[in-house]
Amino acid sequence: MTQVVSPIVVAKFGGTSVADFDAMSRSADVALNESHARLVVLSASAGITNLLVALSEGQEAPGRFVNLDAIRKIQYDIIDRLARPEVIREEIDRLLENITTLAEAASLATSPALTDELVSHGEMMSTLLFVEILRERGVEAQWFDVRKIMRTSDRFGKAEPDVAALAELAQQQLCPRLAESMVITQGFIGSEAKGRTTTLGRGGSDYTAALLGEALHASRVDIWTDVPGIYTTDPRIVPAARRIDKIAFEEAAEMATFGAKVLHPATLLPAVRSEIPVFVGSSKAPEAGGTLVCNRTEQPPLFRALALRRRQTLLTLHSLNMLHSRGFLAEVFSILARHNISVDLITTSEVSVALTLDTTGSTSTGDTLLTTALLTELSSLCRVEVEENLALIALIGNALSRACGVGKEVFGVLESFNIRMICYGASSHNLCFLVPGTEAEHVVRKLHGNLFE
Ligand code: ADP
Ligand code: ASP
Ligand code: MG
C-alpha cells in the first residue's frame, strides 16, 4: 500500500472558479495556500457544460457552429494568457476537434452515451489548462484521468459510482501519484464497465470530490465556489441571507437534497459515511471564511435554512378502487419504480394520492421523467392529473416535528399565497410545501424575512 503524506485535503473548484485565466489563477493560489490540498478536482469552465449539453441535443448548423465557437473562445482566452501557450494549444485543439466530430454525430442521432462522452470534454479541458497554469508557476502537478478509477453504472447522465472499486483503484493508481506531487483531476465524469464515459449528473463535481475524499481517507473536502459558504437561503434570491458558520451533516444534506445548489445533493453521502468534514468557501474571497459541515454543532436551531427547488411536477392520482382497498399504493409505486422514478413528496386521502416528481433535469442527458409510457401505465390504473411548473420550498431545521407553533410561524405570513401541498411530520429536519413556480421567490423572501431576519 502506498503511503500518502497525511493528512490529505481534497480541494474542488466549481465552474466559476475556473471560468477564465484570472479565476483559475486565484484558484491555484487557494490550492497552493493549503499545504495539504494534494488532490484538486475541477469542473468545466463556467458555461462550457451548458454549451456541450446543447450540442449533444443534436444541433443543426449554423447554431452548432456558434456553440462550438463559443467553447473555443472560452478556452482560447485562457490559453492566450499563458506564458507558453504553445505547450497546451495542440492538446486543447485535439479535444475541440473531438467535440466538433461528436457534435456532428449528435446532429444525426443523439444518445445518452454520446452526450456523456461529449459533455466530459469540459472537465478534460479545464484540468489540462489548470495543470499548465500550475506548471508555469514552477509547481509540480500531474494531470490524472479520473475515469481510470471512477467506475460507475451505465446509467448515462446520472451514473452511480462503485464505491468499493473506487477505493481499490484510488489506492493503486492515485496514491502513488499523490505521494509524488499535487494531482489535478476531473469532477463529474466516470466510466462504465465497457470503458464508455459516464457522468454523475449536473453539478456532480462536488460529489466526485467527496467520493475521492472518502476513497483517500481525506481529513477534509474543500468545496470552493462563488459564495463564501452555505447561507440561510440562496443569497441571490435573498441578499439579506446570513452565512451559517457551522452546520451538521444532516442539515446540510437536507438543504442540498431540497435544492440548495451550493452542494450537489449526493455530496454529503460519502462525507457522512466516512465522517469527513466538508468546508464551503469562495475562491474569489478565501479570506472571507466559509461554512464547515461536520458531525455535530452546538445547539442546533429550530429553523436553519430555506431551500427552493423549481420545476416540480405534481401528479394527482384518483381512484375509487382505493376506497377500503389494499395494494393500490403498492401498484402505483411499482409502476414508478419500473420507470426509474423516485418520488419526493407524497400526501394521500381516501381516494387520491398526490406526489411530486423532480424534473429539474439533474441528469446531463436532460431526460424527461414524465414519459407517455409512464402516463399510459398509470392511466390504466386510475385517473391522472398533472400540474407542472410548481416549486418546492423546504424549511430545514431541527426537531421541527416536536415543536409547537411551527405551522403558524410558517404559514401565518403566507396567507396571500396558494399553498398547493404540504408535507410535515415524516422528518424532524424539514417541512416542505409546493407553491406556483412564479411565486416561489416571493414566498422565500417573505418567509426568510419572518424566520431569519
Ligand atoms: P459551482 O459552479 O462552484 O459548483 P454552483 O453555482 O453550483 O457553484 O453553486 C453556487 C451557487 O449556489 C451560489 O452562487 C448560490 O446562488 C447558490 N445557492 C443556492 N442555495 C444556496 C445557499 N443556501 N447558500 C449558498 N449558496 C446557495
Ligand atoms: N460541469 C458539470 C456541470 O456543469 C459538473 C459540475 O460543474 O459540477 O454540471
Ligand atoms: Mg455546483
From TrEMBL:
Substrate binds at T49, E123. SUPFAM superfamilies: ACT-like, Carbamate kinase-like. InterPro entries: AceGlu_kinase-like_sf, ACT-like_dom_sf, ACT_Aspartokinase, ACT_dom, AKiii-LysC-EC, Asp/Glu/Uridylate_kinase, Asp_kin_monofn, Asp_kinase. The keyword Magnesium does not apply. Its EC number is 2.7.2.4. The keyword Transcription regulation does not apply. One of its GO terms (cellular component) is cytosol. It catalyses: L-aspartate + ATP = 4-phospho-L-aspartate + ADP. Pathway: Amino-acid biosynthesis; L-lysine biosynthesis via DAP pathway; (S)-tetrahydrodipicolinate from L-aspartate: step 1/4; Amino-acid biosynthesis; L-threonine biosynthesis; L-threonine from L-aspartate: step 1/5; Amino-acid biosynthesis; L-methionine biosynthesis via de novo pathway; L-homoserine from L-aspartate: step 1/3. Keywords: Amino-acid biosynthesis, ATP-binding, Kinase, Lysine biosynthesis, Nucleotide-binding, Transferase. This is Aspartokinase.
